[in-house]
Amino acid sequence: GIDDFSNAIEIQPDESVYYLYRGIYRIRYGDEEGAVSDYNKVIAIDPESEDGYLRLGMYKQSIEDYEGAINDYKKAISINPKVDYAYFGLGDIYFFSKNYRLTIEYINKGLAISPQLTNAYLKRGIAKSNFDHLNEEAIDDLNNFLDANPEDSEGYYYRGKCKSALSNFEGACEDWKKAAELGDEDAAKLLEEHCE
Questions:
Q1: Cβ neighbours of 138 (radius 10 Å)
Q2: Which residues contact residue 192 at a Cβ distance below 8 angstroms, ignoring those fewer than 6 apart?
Q3: What's the distance, CA 22 to chain centroid?
């Protein structure tokens, strides 16, 4: 754990990978200040370390320093355009700020690298559902998500909203019923208001 990497750093103080892994362990055990120090040391030793910027971005996102996280994720991408998590992190940040166009753009890039990350389909589907002309694409994304997560009420809730927007009221009611059965109170309200 942390002690092993600290010992390795004493022996090889210019080896950035030891700081990176010690930082990961420090985050895991609640030493955020120590982790940030280690990630900054990674970058000081190796300014082209996408992992250092990626980990700093993840940390900053977790403390809601979105501007800092965006800068770190973009720096990681500039070093290595195949860093899928940086795209997903950017997609998350833009999703929560309701910038759905950028959410879709960055999640598209992340999924081009790692199409197996099904949770990204949920976020992209919800983002697309905010644009009337993308409701069918949103349904496709939500289908992909629900294929891997059939007990997730949120996927059914949003797929129902998309179906309703496309005037497929029977399909919407089926999805809202399933979401309500899984405990989604908003879906239960829609079911009561719009379905028999």
A1: 26
A2: none
A3: 24
How far, in Å, CA of 164 to CA of 38, rounded? 50
Structure tokens at 122: 């949920």
Name residues whose C-beta falls within 8 Å of residue 154's C-beta, 6 or more positions apart in sequence: 122, 179, 184
The b/e string for 23-34 (b: 16+ C-beta within 10 A; e otherwise) is bbbbbeeebeeb
Residues 82-98 have pLDDT tens digits of 999 999 999 999 999 99
Q: How far apart are CA 53 and CA 20, in angstroms?
A: 10
Q: ∠ CA 176-150-156 to the nearest 5 degrees?
A: 20
Q: What is the pLDDT of residues 171-185, one digit of tens each?
A: 999 999 999 999 999
Containing 43, the helix (H) or strand (E) segment is helix 32-45
